[in-house]
Amino acid sequence: MKKIIDVSLKCRNVHADKCKTDLLCVALFSKAKTLEKTCERLDKKLGGAIAKLIKLGDFKGSEGEIAVLYGNNKISAKRVMLVGLGEKKKVTLDTLRSAASKAASKAVALKAATLSLALHSAVGDKFDNEALAQAIAEGVCIGGYRYDEYITESENGRLGSLKVELIDSNLAKLEKLSKGIKNGSVVGKAQSYARTIANRPGNVITPASLAAEARKLASRTKGLSCSVFDKKKLTAKGMGGILAVGSGSKNEPRLIVLKYSPNGAAKGPVVGLVGKAVTFDSGGISIKPSANMDQMKFDKSGGIAVLGAMKAIAELGLKVRVYGIIPAAENMPSGTSYRPGDIVTTYSGKTVEIQNTDAEGRMILCDALHYAVKQKCDMIIDIATLTGSCVVALGKYSAGVMGNNDGLISKIEQAAKDSGEKVWHLPSGGDYLEEMKSKIADLKNIGSRWGGACTAASFLGEFVGKTKWAHIDMAGVEMFVESKQGGVGSSGYGVRLLTSLVQNIKKK
Known about the structure:
about 500 residues; alpha/beta; Leucine Aminopeptidase, subunit E, domain 1; Aminopeptidase; 2 domains; 9-stranded mixed beta sheet; 6-stranded mixed beta sheet; 18 strands; about 35% helix
């Protein structure tokens, strides 16, 4: 298989006009009456080319807009790219993250081996330099990513690596910028790692191979350990939800348990991150329509988000104890599949009447959630591509967040702001839970056609007891595979969100 583009990042102390690079990137705001100092200096050496482009109306500085100019013998860069940031009063760190993503994506398209970024000079001191550099580094990793492991042609329009630097002529800023670039590189590369695993098809990523990948990650990452429950151990534990979903496939299910135990974190909360990993979801006996069924390889994305977040958390060395719990199964129809009408006894002892085998995610999550409770996690966050109803409610722009603790949900909302991965608080419990009550078992696995994201969350809440818990339904933000974040395929949603959440818990 071809290797994914290797993106490397660093900082350098140099003036933009003296920066030797294949592509120099600067940013402009819309409706700006004057050029910012870096752009003004470049414009003079380019003979007024930037000002002329703006005057002609060919570049307006709208958010995400780009234009490429060519260098001359008065500057060291071969090309200069202008990236629009939109209105100055509305600029956020996510604006800069997106701008860096645009720049890196264009650099890959141009086959530029080196990219130098001076984006941040446009915003001055509006943001903390470390946070700013982290957002830019994350954006570079997003935009520089391409999923083409299985394209066998040697000439597929891209180089094997991209060297990126954040440049600044102010030496005093470099320490914080460098720290931000380092942290952002860790998180960005963890997101790219997650995107690659999520993009791999069902004949490559099975529950067993996903478990092997988790073990491999743990073996090379300080502070991270991994244990795996196979079918025999799942049976001994009585994890009937995971076993039922995996019963129709020759690829037997697994429960993957990653544990991060850093030195110096004996006290403080233990965080449980639980991610749904249905490596392929045919719907089982309640089979899905054939149209777009290929996208069901992405039904493992919640589990992959946890895998990527655990990688980032450990590599950042955050002083918080974290469990990463990933129930993995393949949902297939066969003579051994679980059926509508079956009653399944879960790990918690609660019984569930199966009314639809395509409501499988909650069946594997309920066992994993109760396992997290048994590990005495102080707070549990699960993440899953769980319901089409959440897509109907929120579209492809935000994930739904529900739970039993407003304080934890507020922490997730803050992490969403910090990471740029959006969430929206939806209700659960109460009347929604009543819909999930069965007449012949404790619960049933579907409610009515209305409020499906909320009834699904209510079902999950029955397996956490009094533990602080939140559920993130990421179906909309992950299942639309034409990603606007560089290339096609998985967006890698959740890695930045979960990492930011644990970072914030560490700060508290």
